[in-house]
């Protein structure tokens, strides 16, 4: 649905050049929710704005629903962009218009007849749970309700693709959860393809099927969330499952084990202890449902150094687990640290 190839965007000002997006490749499959995670300045907002050509890239290709947007001009480009909705961090509502008026605005621009426009607005407000607030003004509703208006407005033209620019970062945790639940519901009910950017691990954990971590204009890792979580050394895995600090005993092996799906129900720790007569120390762990699958992460301490424990590590890997041996002094990123 979205295909980006070798995308590059450079800003030039006062004799300086800043490369915001540096040769990024991205594929978002039809009907999935794809999250781009990164700190401020990573280039993720520029990347998102290049998808609907709010920013025109210096080079590369942007294909949405089979159309090469950079090859289009005039009316053709306007029609293609109508298939891409966008919601913003700070809502962007018109204060002089009611809730219904804000949702109707893009339909007016598209020249939709009044009766058809009124029916579509009513349908959209019902979809986002704001039917009772149709006549209210933005100043009279909460932040979460404002974002629901923004979502309804973005869906007015029946887009196939929805772009989300930090849509929950200005909201409290409870409201964030409700907006993410709404986005996931819309994704499933309408078959929307959603590309979102965020600095919040919780957003990726709650609704993303696939994700990429962006730093300095490039992706450091990208793919289905469950695959990234099972990949040794994954930044995403360390961020989504922050484990507590550890003080390993001298001469021990500290191992981080990630397990997905059916492996979460297997007693591999007790099986390892029985097979090798080991005292296995569990230093931390968690099991959660992410992208529709149960995913777990454990930090274990085994007696002896890694060379002594080669057979034990092989046993865990042969059980289908992702195994990463960590240096005793190394600590994983917490979600808060990764967001900064």
TrEMBL record:
<keyword id="KW-0472">Membrane</keyword>
<dbReference type="InterPro" id="IPR027417">
    <property type="entry name" value="P-loop_NTPase"/>
</dbReference>
<dbReference type="InterPro" id="IPR041701">
    <property type="entry name" value="MetN_ABC"/>
</dbReference>
<keyword id="KW-0029">Amino-acid transport</keyword>
<dbReference type="InterPro" id="IPR018449">
    <property type="entry name" value="NIL_domain"/>
</dbReference>
<dbReference type="GO" id="GO:0005524">
    <property type="term" value="F:ATP binding"/>
</dbReference>
<keyword id="KW-0813">Transport</keyword>
<protein>
    <submittedName>
        <fullName>Methionine ABC transporter ATP-binding protein</fullName>
    </submittedName>
</protein>
<dbReference type="InterPro" id="IPR003593">
    <property type="entry name" value="AAA+_ATPase"/>
</dbReference>
<keyword id="KW-1003">Cell membrane</keyword>
<feature type="domain" description="ABC transporter">
    <location>
        <begin position="2"/>
        <end position="241"/>
    </location>
</feature>
<dbReference type="Pfam" id="PF00005">
    <property type="entry name" value="ABC_tran"/>
</dbReference>
<keyword id="KW-0547">Nucleotide-binding</keyword>
<dbReference type="InterPro" id="IPR045865">
    <property type="entry name" value="ACT-like_dom_sf"/>
</dbReference>
<dbReference type="InterPro" id="IPR003439">
    <property type="entry name" value="ABC_transporter-like_ATP-bd"/>
</dbReference>
<dbReference type="InterPro" id="IPR050086">
    <property type="entry name" value="MetN_ABC_transporter-like"/>
</dbReference>
<dbReference type="InterPro" id="IPR017871">
    <property type="entry name" value="ABC_transporter-like_CS"/>
</dbReference>
<dbReference type="Pfam" id="PF09383">
    <property type="entry name" value="NIL"/>
</dbReference>
<keyword id="KW-1278">Translocase</keyword>
<keyword id="KW-0067">ATP-binding</keyword>
